[in-house]
Structures are given as structure tokens and as C-alpha cells.
Amino acid sequence: WEEKMITRIVILLSLLVIVSAISLGQAGPKLPDEVRRCLERDEFKGKVKILTAQKTYLLRGDFDGDGVPDYALAIKGLKTRRNGVLICSSRGAAVMLGAEAPKEPPFSDLPDDNFVAPSWQVMSKREANKLYNYEGDKPVKVASPKGDSIAMLWEDGTCLIYCDGTRYRWGCGQ
């Protein structure tokens, strides 16, 4: 009788461990508290989802230039099905670019304002200041960021999302 009881307890505990592991996997991606609070805001809650299929869906950098790290999250609008970026500032401010943001005026110059590249990374202010657009008669500096930029990396160049101290802007170059 004792042996059967021990076997039942082991089976029950094994099932409990398996169920716990499955429910943890469904909890969603691990995010910093600042990003969770950002996603819980009324203007974003239930309106966007995280692009977890994106190799890197979360970036950390000083995007607004205040000396404190901010976060950028790759998102998709649930209604529009458009990709975008949610920037969560260390000060509690948040900016949604693309996704559920109004399409007019578009944020980028890309078709359907679809500007989230398969590969993206944080680019320092110094690196961003070295990026130029060579399409015209003379090279034009792409950005004058106040802090770090979000670099969308394409095969034929790099496009930046950067804050100029007033708002977030878009610029492309090589």
C-alpha cells in the first residue's frame, strides 16, 4: 500500500511540475517593469502585441538624451496589423510609432509606413552623427540625435529613429 501511495505522489508531483512549466511558458516574454507599465497604459492596453518573433524585440538605450535608459519595443497593432515601435521613456512618457498610430502623416518614407526592419539595434549618438545620405548633389547628415538612436538595418542602408529634443524623427543613409 505504501509503495502505491508513493508512486501516486510522484506522479502527481510530476504532473504539477509539467503544468507549472506550461503555464510559465504562456506568461509572455520577460519584460522590465517600466515596459510592463508602459504596455498597461490605456492608449496601448489591448491595442498592440509584442513582436516576439522578431529576433530582438526589446532595445535599451538613452533615446531621449536625458542620461537615463529608455526602452524600445517591437509591436504590432491588433486592429491595423501594422508593425511599429513603442518607446517607453524612463520619465514615464511613451510614444507609439507605426502600429496603431495614425497613418497620416506617415512616420517614415517607406511604403505603408512599414519601417520595422528584420534586424534593429541601438546606435550611439556618435555613430548616428557619422551616417549620411548620398542621394543628392552632396552628402547630407541623416540625423542630429539628442541621445541614442534606433537603427533599422536593411540590406541597402540604415534608417534611424531618433529624438531631436522635440520629437522622434526618421532618417535614412549609409
Main beta sheet strand tally, sense and closure: 5 strands, antiparallel
Low-confidence runs: 20-26
**Portion in helices:** 10-25%
Class inferred from helices and paired strands: alpha+beta
Strand count: 11
Which of globular, elongated, flat, extended, rod-shaped describes the shape? elongated
Number of helices: 3
How big is the Rg?
A: 21 Å
The proportion of residues in beta strands is 25-35%
What's the oligomerization state?
single chain
Determine the N-to-C terminus distance: 75 Å
Main attributes?
four-stranded antiparallel β-sheet
Describe this structure in words.
The protein is an alpha+beta fold and 174 residues long. Helices cover 20% and strands 31% of the residues. The strands form three sheets. Strands 1, 2, 3, 4 and 5 form a five-stranded antiparallel β-sheet that branches. Strands 6-9-10-11 form a four-stranded antiparallel β-sheet. Strands 7-8 form a two-stranded antiparallel ribbon. A hairpin with a 5-residue loop joins strand 3 and strand 4. It is elongated and about 90 Å long. The chain starts with a helix and ends with a strand.
